[in-house]
């Protein structure tokens, strides 16, 4: 088990497959990109599967989510999914993606064993999309979403970040659009993980703002069982159901006390939190010949260093060295 000193157990693994991306979302990556990891620094497909196997078979991980950077840019993605789906016990497998290229790969990913997908999309308007992502790929994302649904990935969730002055008035339009297509929309509060270190709490669109905006057009009732558990999204029933909308209030209502996550970066470093300032190197140990038990022991030891919370509210909060795209969102 991956038990920390606050009694939490990590069962949900986020694996970044690349730090590269084909979008340049202003809140995630600089316009010119970043200094990408060199190929030898990246875990190979074999190494990714080995570490997932250690997590699943020795450490109690039950959920594996592939992310990045943009995971669809990883040539070996379908094979990685297939090999992870063959593990016993079989983990639940999901993908967080910008959806570009999903049109071509959704069916293969589904056949390989992918269970569900989260596609990030902040707007229904192609021009606003261009302003946020600095790329003209809105139509590709829409086609990717439709293909995911057609391939039977279930649920298809859409992740949206609202930014002041860019898309902050779009919450109701996004929800109407998602409801019509059967996608489950989740808003995520913008976190201080931008490369410019320009995030300011005063300017951010909060969960409260988002809910108030949605309520101008929809009736929202908190989900019956109130079962947030370790799930970061609080969910509301839309207009009496069956549709739901989620809000992930990572900044204003953090879920650290119930956190069940552990992370592996594309270069094989364990991170216990998005905001962690320390990483533990599994790639070095793996390449030096460590066996599975030693890798598991290192992962357990790293988990003991997991902090109580993200530290966002501490007066001395310092943003992590790597931005979101390089950590793996
Ligand atoms: C870093 S991306 C990686 C996976 C993939 N490229 C995608 O677009 O989903 C994962 C998620 O992180 C979100 N994200 C990136 N930077 C963020 C920030 N500063 N605050 C909140 N969410 C952020 C993105 O909107 C996206 O939904």
UniProtKB/TrEMBL annotation:
Annotated binding of GTP, by residue: 14, 65, 96, 157, 261-263
Cofactor(s) essential for the protein: [4Fe-4S] cluster
Residue numbers binding [4Fe-4S] cluster 1: 21, 25, 28
Key words, A-Z: 4Fe-4S, GTP-binding, Iron, Iron-sulfur, Lyase, Metal-binding, Molybdenum cofactor biosynthesis, Nucleotide-binding, S-adenosyl-L-methionine
Cofactor note: Binds 2 [4Fe-4S] clusters. Binds 1 [4Fe-4S] cluster coordinated with 3 cysteines and an exchangeable S-adenosyl-L-methionine and 1 [4Fe-4S] cluster coordinated with 3 cysteines and the GTP-derived substrate.
Binding site for [4Fe-4S] cluster 2: 256, 259, 273
EC number: 4.1.99.22
Location of the Radical SAM core domain: 5-223
InterPro entries in the cross-refs: Aldolase_TIM (IPR013785), Elp3/MiaA/NifB-like_rSAM (IPR006638), MoaA (IPR013483), MoaA-like (IPR040064), MoaA_NifB_PqqE_Fe-S-bd_CS (IPR000385), MoaA_twitch (IPR010505), MoCo_biosynth_MoaA/MoaC (IPR050105), rSAM (IPR007197)
GO molecular function: GTP 3',8'-cyclase activity
Span list, region Disordered: 310-329
Catalytic function, reaction form: GTP + AH2 + S-adenosyl-L-methionine = (8S)-3',8-cyclo-7,8-dihydroguanosine 5'-triphosphate + 5'-deoxyadenosine + L-methionine + A + H(+)
SMART domains cross-referenced by the UniProt entry: Elp3
Annotated Pfam families: Mob_synth_C (PF06463), Radical_SAM (PF04055)
Residue sites binding S-adenosyl-L-methionine per the record: 27, 69, 120, 191
Subunit details: Monomer and homodimer.
Similarity field: Belongs to the radical SAM superfamily. MoaA family.
Function: Catalyzes the cyclization of GTP to (8S)-3',8-cyclo-7,8-dihydroguanosine 5'-triphosphate.
Record protein name field: GTP 3',8-cyclase
Species the sequence originates in: Streptomyces boetiae
